[in-house]
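Final report, results section. Input specification for complex C-07:
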Amino acid sequence: MLRYIIKRLLLAIPLIFGLLTLIFFIIRLAPGDPAAFFIQPGISPKVAEQIRAQYGLNDPLPVQYVKWLASVLQGDFGRSFSRAQQPVIEVIASSLPITITIALLTLVANFTFGILIGIVSAVRQNSFLDRFLTVTALFFYSMPEFWFALMMIILFALKFPLFPVSGLNEIGAEGFGPVGFFLDRVWHLVLPVTVLSINGAAGIARYVRGSMLEVIRQDYIRTARAKGLPEKLVIFRHALRNALLPVITIMGSSLPFIFSGALFIEVIFAFPGMGRVTVEALLARDYPLIIANTFISGSLIVLGNLFADVLYAVADPRIKL
Amino acid sequence: MTKAIERAIKRFFSIVRLPVSMVFVGVALMLVSCGGEKSDGGKARTAMDSTLVIAMLGDADYLNPVLGSSVTSGNIIGLIYPSLLQSEFDTETGLMNYVALEKKLRPTTAGQAQRSPQGAIAKSWSFSADHKMLTYTLRNDAFWNDGKPVVAGDFKFTYKLYGNPVIASARQQYLAELVGADKGQVDFDKAIETPNDTTLIFRFYKPVPEHLALFHTSLTPLPAHRWNKVKPTEFRNSPLNIEPLGAGPYHLKSWKQQQEIVLESSSKSNLPKPGTIPLITFRVVPDYTVRLAQLQTGAVDVVENIKPEDFTALLKANRQIDIKTVGLRVYDYVGWSNIDQNEYHKSGKILPHPLFGSARVRLALTQAIDRESIIDGYLKQYGVLCNTAISPSLKWAYNDRIVPHPFDPAQATALLKAEGWVPGADGILQKNGKRFSFTLYTNSGNARRNYASVIIQQNLRAVGIDCKLDVQESNVFFDNLHQRKLDAWMAGWSIGLEIDPLDEWGSDLNKSRFNFTGYQNPRLDQLCNLAKQKMEPTGAKPYWLEYQEILHRDQPVTFLYWMKETQGFSKRIEGAELNISGSFYNIDDWRLRPSANVAP
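Structure output:
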């Protein structure tokens, strides 16, 4: 298995470099100019030119590429154009903790509730409970996140002011003491995490239900029941483990999400996370930041897939890597 | 084998148990925190009583006057740093006034806020008779926050930074009249002299009107003693940028990037005085709907640029909100390419545009568009019909004799017919086999322009013109505009408080970067240049009146409407005076009513 993992990791290196090279050229060929902000009345036409010179955009494209490659190979992704020339690694490092906190909370809630609901609706197939859960899950699954988030704000922050509208902390939260500050943070996270997990759990529940139904009809489940095992044991020990195989794929593909952030939720709840960093970088044509973000999400997709494959092998002894 | 499976299952459940328990802990914490919030409510309320919260769309870029170029940066820099002069907009005349401690450019009128001039570093100034030398006398009791005095050398030091091409300051245009600028490089030794700590002399290579000289020499200074070791190449990356040392009514308390900037009143400041409100928090709230909701719940006190369609609901939901308006500085227009851009890009030749090349056709287009109905339907009392590029707020120059072109489809049809445009078989106007059909472009994400463009499309269809609509991503749209690639578009323009329209309408299309229409009129160039030679702005009034008549006659674009900026304010703010030069113009004088006095 170790050999397999190393081989896959080695294969990923040219893949990610190819991806970065492609992005490097695509964003430079796309219309728009990182210095466009400085082309406005009252600002000397020289400024945009000087800014471009600072960013090294006046060199021919191949020269820019070689320079960029040299610095990336030394682990330097450059400085952001749009965020006061902060090193892009710092920009990303400052938004990652927030994104990861939200994403981990969401993923845990997603899979816990998703799996539980999925099992219940599969075991009680076609019962009222199953139908109710199915309809509810579909209802939430098909709801656009940003709309759902706004509705939650209207309901729980405006009509019944239980939670704050947005932000990570109250004004003056520093004075609450460490426990108070932490609780204030949790209080601010309730709405966004709820929105994200209801949407996600609904989807996962559908997967689990489907695969659970398939597994329950297998011979070995009948055998387990026939030998008199309690139903709880049959479902959780024998059926669930096999039913979870497709869910593992989803788990693997969720890894990039942990780091890439949830744009709409970040914008609506005013969290400075990765989703906003990425989109703002795109809009400002902040080339170094776009490339660094692509690097992170590209690597994570590769790693996520690898992670899912390894999990397969762990969960299913028939698969040998 | 079975043992192995059992182990795996146990491992699985031990993995699952952790998240399940975490969720339960989370829920428990949530409940506790809801309760806990109440016990912290008292503290939160006292914090709110001493804190003004302003919602902002994006974070500040630099809190450094040489580099900061976003509106948020400008607002915050104005509170942190000292300024040489105080500038005030006089609503009665529409002129800018510049005020030093003991001298004013113009006498104060009723239209000008009665602010104490204590914020100015300059005690007084004298201007030479040949309009080429400006001498400031500075006060000697102004200090940076670290206790060192603010001296003339700080200004000279910072002007060198403003003019350094490596630093690429967006304000280097302000140095355009200094000695040496005509030869491409400001000669700082001759252009700015500091014989002692309280005397600052600026020299210009040509005669400059006094108001312009004052405007261009009053750029914000940096403390030289703190910055003099920073190399120009490292200036933008310097860590000093995130710990600004100022002298104004506030200083930076904390800056959580992309989240909030907290300013604290500087108790020792005498420029003009410590800010009345102890803390000002600028919070980044990128989503418009959420900014509104925050204003409604009282989580923020000020939200800028509220859309007119939201006023009723907002005021109904919370009576403690006030809508304040200021303007008029911004207008929307429909641009018509006056020249055939294809030919211009190919051969450099200037030929009239096949559709919009004639002033009569453009006039017909203006008359075919029901501008009043756009105002009534969207902007309501916050919109004013726009005739030309000079704002009614600049009263001294505004031509109030101009009669707006009325909405008159019949007259528009007649004008188009006189130009040879007659209805074809499909009902669309034709001339020499060419249909009157084009695409009107606008930038994405602007509800007001979307609303207006649909009305424009219908209006034009009614006179037999086929107008297709297309929305482009903002970067792409403005790129196309700058390259003069679009035939017709809708965009906006924000005017400066000094009139200088050559960039927008000048005939030299290479120099006039913002003349997107390609409009050319030598008389207009002449008028702008004549106006520039006047040493007193009001002396140029006749030229500006004629300038407006020309624009009104030629209709290089269809001017749509001026918009008032509409800002939502919590009523707990007292003493806020909005000014065309900025919503936070006198923020250091604002006061907060304690929450006990605010009706629920």
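Chain B touches chain A through 73 residues (CB under 8 Å). The radius of gyration of chain B is 29 Å. This concludes the modelling results for the funded period.
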